[in-house]
Amino acid sequence: MPRALLSVSDKTGLVDLARGLVDHGYEIVSTGGTARALTDAGLAVINVSDVTGFPEMMDGRVKTLHPKIHAGILARRDHSGDVAAAHAHGIELVEVVVVNLYPFAETAKKAGVAFDELIEQIDIGGPSLVRAAAKNFRDVLVVVDPRRYPDVLHELDRPSGPSLEFRFALAQDAIAYTGQYDTAIASALARFSIDRGQFVRSDSGSSAGAAGRIDLSLEKIRDLRYGENPHQRAAWYQIAQNGARGSISILQGKELSYTNLLDLDAAARIALEFTEPAAVVVKHTNPCGAATGASAADAYVRARDADPLAAFGGIVAVNRVIDAAAAEAIVSTFIEAVVAPDVEEAARPVLARKTNMRVIVADFGPLGDARRSHLVEEMRSTLAGVLVQTRDRVTEACHPWSPSSLPEGLRVATKRHPTDGEWEALRFAWRVCAHVKSNAVIFTDESRTLAIGAGQMSRVDAVHVAAAKARAANVSLTGSAAASDAFFPFRDGLDAVARAGATAVVQPGGSVRDAEVILAADEHGLAMVFTGRRHFRH
After folding, report:
1. Quick one: pLDDT at residue 537?
2. What is the Rg, in whole angstroms, of the alpha carbon atoms belonging to the chain?
3. Residue 239 forms beta bridges with which residues?
4. Which of 437, 104, 421 is nearest to 262 (CA)?
C-alpha cells in the first residue's frame, strides 16, 4: 500500500486531502497535531514514532529526522541499490509528502515577540522533508500549498498517474517555499543584537543601517503590459516573506500598468498623512490636488477642483471607504485609477459605469499607523546597487499645531507668529509638501492645495511654477500658506513666496543664511515656522 506523509502547521483543507488520499489507496503517516486532527476526523493514521521506533522528543524538536523516514522519501525507484537498501532495512517507501512549516514569519511580525519564542518557530524537520521530496520529485509528490490539494487529487485520478510536468512544478514550488522561509528567518534575526547577554530587537534600526545583510525572496504577482515605456518589460512582485498578498484587491478595470502602480503608491502615501477625510489626485507621482473635506465625496471634489486641468486622467486615493456619493463624484471625471480602504456595495455599480477605470482596495491600516509606518523599508535599484531606507513620514504633523502645542523641533523663527488659521494651513501644506518631488514649494489654504511647484532645480523656480499655475487657473494665492520641503539657501526664494501672496511659510530651516531669510520674512511681515526636519523626495 502506498504511503503519504502529512505534517502541516496550516491545516486548511487537510482532512479533505487525507480522505482523498485514502480513497486512492494510500495509508497516512503523520505527526503531532496533524495526526490528532486526522484521528479526530475519523481517519486511520500511523504515527511517525511507530515508523521510526523513537518517540517525539525535546518538545517536538525531533520527530521526523530519521532514516526510516528520509530513506523512504529519497530512495530512487529506478535504482536497484536504493530499493534493495530500503528493503534490507525494513523501510517503507513514501509516495506523497505534504508539509507546510511552522509560522515563523507570522510570529516575527508580532509586536514585542521574544527571541526564544521566535527561535522555537524555526522548523527543522519540515524543510528537510520538503527538500528530500523535492529532490526525488520523479518518484515523490511534494505539496506545500493547500491551494494545490485539489490538483493533487485530480492528478492521482489520471490513469497514468501524475505527470512529470506536474511533479516538477510541485518541486519548484517546494524549493521556492523553503527558500522564502529561510529568507524570512535571516531577515528577522538580523533585527536582533546582543546587549549584556540579552537578545534585543531593534525595529527602529531595521535593516537600513543596522543589518549587514538583507535577504529577499520576491514572488511574482503578475506580468505587466510594459514598464514606463512600451519597449520596457515589467512585472509586479511582492516580498514573499511579508505575506503581502491579499492586502490589495482589484475590483474592476483594465490591467494595471507600471506607472499606474507608481502613481497609486504616491497618492496613497499622501492620503495616509491625514486622519480626517482626505483625497488626492496624482499625475506622474506628483499631487496636482489634495484636500480634506466633510466626507470622501467632498474631499475628492475639492482635490479635483484644485487643478481640474491636471486632474484629467489622474490617479486618485481616498482615505475613506468610497460610498455612493463619492463614487458619483469620481465617475464624473475621467480618472485612470482609484485606491481606497474599501468600496461600499452601493458604490460598486456606480464605479462600474467606467468599465476601464481601475478600482483598487488596499489595506491602509498598517501603513497609516503613524507610530510604526515610518519603519517600513523602501528599496531602490541603482547602477551602484540597491539603496535601502526607512519610509519617510511627517510624524511631526500628526497632531494639530498651535502656540500651546508644538511638537519637538518646531519653532517660530519670525517676529510675527502665525494666526490660528495660518497654523492650520501650514500643517496641511507641510503634510502634502513632503510628498512632492524636490525641489518643491507649494501653496495651500487650511484644507486644500492652491498651487504646486514640483521637481524644480531651484526653489525660486518652484515658486515661479506654482505662481504661474495659479495665474493660469485664476486662483489667488493672497493670504495663502507656503511650504518648502527643504531650507531656502538664499532670501530670493522667500522673496518670491511673499510676492506670490503667501502670508505664512513653513520650512525646515538649517541654512547658513537662515538669518538672512528670517530678516526677509520679517520685512515682508510673514510668519515663518522652522520644523527642523527636511522632507526631500527624489
Report:
1. 94
2. 30
3. 218
4. 437
Q: CA 94 to CA 2: how far, in whole Å?
A: 7
pLDDT of residue 472 exceeding 80, the answer is yes
Q: 216 — phi, psi (to 5°)?
A: -125, 145
Letter for the amino acid at 313?
A: G
pLDDT digit string, tens, across residues 45-54? 888 888 888 8
Beta strands, E only, 212-363: 218-224, 234-239, 248-252, 278-283, 286-292, 314-318, 335-340, 358-362
Cell digits of residue 339: 485606491
Helix axes 491-500, 514-524, angle to 10 degrees: 20
Given a contact cutoff of 8 angstroms between Cβ atoms, the answer to whether 251 and 348 are in contact is yes
Active-site entry in 24, 109, 135, 374: 135
pTM for this structure? 0.77
Q: Which three cell numbers stand for residue 413?
A: 523663527
- What digits encode the pLDDT tens for the residues 492-537? 999 999 999 999 999 999 999 999 999 999 999 999 999 999 999 9
318 and 295 Cβ atoms separated by less than 8 Å: no
Catalytic pick among 11, 284, 374, 464: 284
The single-letter code of the amino acid at 489 is P
Name the H helices within 114-194: 115-119, 125-135, 149-156, 164-189
Question: How does 67-93 read in b/e, with b if 16+ C-beta sit within 10 Å?
Answer: ebbbbbbbbeeeeeebeeebeeeebbb
Please report, as a single letter, which amino acid is at residue 462: A
Distances (CA, A) of 485 to 234, 433, 455, 491, 509: 32, 6, 11, 16, 10
Q: Where residue 372 falls among pLDDT bands split at 50, 70, 90?
A: very low
Query: How many residues in the chain?
Result: 538
Residue 147 to residues 14, 138, 143, 198, 523, Cα–Cα distance (Å): 11, 21, 10, 41, 69
Closest CA relative to residue 497, chosen from 437, 415, 426, 446: 426
Q: Which three cell numbers stand for residue 150?
A: 485539489
Half-sphere exposure for 410 (CA within 13 Å, toward CB): 23
- In this structure, are residues 94 and 73 in contact, taking their beta carbons and an 8 Å threshold? yes
Annotated active-site residue 63? The verdict is: no
Distance separating alpha carbons of residues 367 and 345, to the nearest angstrom: 25
How would you classify the pairing of strands 449-453 and 481-484? unpaired
Task: List the grid coordinates of 78.
Answer: 529506478
Q: 73-108: per-residue pLDDT in tens?
A: 999 988 888 889 889 888 889 999 999 888 888 888
Give catalytic status of residue 231 as yes or no. no
